[in-house]
Amino acid sequence: MPIITAEGPKIDDLEKRKEFVKTVTAAASKYFNLPEESIIILIKENSPENVSVGGILISEKDTKNND
Amino acid sequence: MPIITAEGPKIDDLEKRKEFVKTVTAAASKYFNLPEESIIILIKENSPENVSVGGILISEKDTKNND
Amino acid sequence: MPIITAEGPKIDDLEKRKEFVKTVTAAASKYFNLPEESIIILIKENSPENVSVGGILISEKDTKNND
Amino acid sequence: MPIITAEGPKIDDLEKRKEFVKTVTAAASKYFNLPEESIIILIKENSPENVSVGGILISEKDTKNND
Amino acid sequence: MPIITAEGPKIDDLEKRKEFVKTVTAAASKYFNLPEESIIILIKENSPENVSVGGILISEKDTKNND
Amino acid sequence: MPIITAEGPKIDDLEKRKEFVKTVTAAASKYFNLPEESIIILIKENSPENVSVGGILISEKDTKNND
């Protein structure tokens, strides 16, 4: 503990992910005043047809934007 | 924010999902007294072999029901 | 199961909450094609100093709006 | 309700999973003083490239250990 | 990691909680084949007016049972 | 969306929290390639008697360390 969960779209760029977890781990270690080794990050990938904003699935918004 | 997370079995019917997020978004907007545009819904699909009720995996219950 | 978790600000109006859980339960029952009795809703209250949008705590936004 | 969510690596052994949910359900029933039938367990599988400990993705740790 | 989250009613009995986390940690260690030291458990207390089952707040069910 | 949830001990320092959400929001915006305005962070405070590591409540570990 502490545990950070990041819910967002799927990001394939492994280098960006390495940088993201490194930055967030350092920020969490500083905030919680706990060693970096105790910081866990879970990255949760969500597909656009399983997320809605304002009552509309993101997959629907994407389709409308491409029409 | 607000954020509604719906954990349940996988449902493939896109039209039903569109209706579900529309109804829940309207209900959440009314309850939290916040604009629909601020309401996020995450739909999380769970396979039956990863969920238990009463100590038995749902996939096991299904198998017993089909015997 | 299914389980719906609603993360949002604290709402004290019990009648509104009863209506909210009733509407969302009916929508979830219809979507997941499962009996209402199986639908669980967890309401999670978040105080404005523990939520940020766009990198700013909601409590800070409120303060700025009242200046 | 109650609901137990187990976030961890993917485990394919179905017999071990049956035993796990059985043990945890009994422990939860005893702790919450509620019938086993009311205990729900969700098992969430995380791939090593989506989890970090100490700022390093578990997939990276595995690679270093195998060099 | 792994991380177990237990959502349920508030239980004040500290001895029961110690036993609960011990049992669940041992079960998780065995299931995930990881050392007990790596198992984290978060216990989340929910008040009955913030949980609904079957569209009815648990606090309402309690009231009806006591009439 | 995206949504970052930070589970950890209660931290009272508001300035540290402002800095934390600012840093994590910038990192998430860069990682997900989405505007900062779309990044939501929920900070969840856990008391030591509701968290266990290695099967022991953190409140118990603290007591042992102070003996």
UniProtKB/TrEMBL annotation, chains A, B, C, D, E, F:
One of its GO terms (molecular function) is isomerase activity. Transmembrane segments: none annotated. Residues 2-59 form the 4-oxalocrotonate tautomerase-like domain. Its EC number is 5.3.2.-. InterPro entries: 4-OT-like_dom, Tautomerase/MIF_sf. The keyword Isomerase applies. Pfam families: Tautomerase. SUPFAM superfamilies: Tautomerase/MIF (SSF55331). Keywords: Isomerase. This is 4-oxalocrotonate tautomerase. It comes from Deferribacter desulfuricans (strain DSM 14783 / JCM 11476 / NBRC 101012 / SSM1). The lineage of its organism: Bacteria, Pseudomonadati, Deferribacterota, Deferribacteres, Deferribacterales.
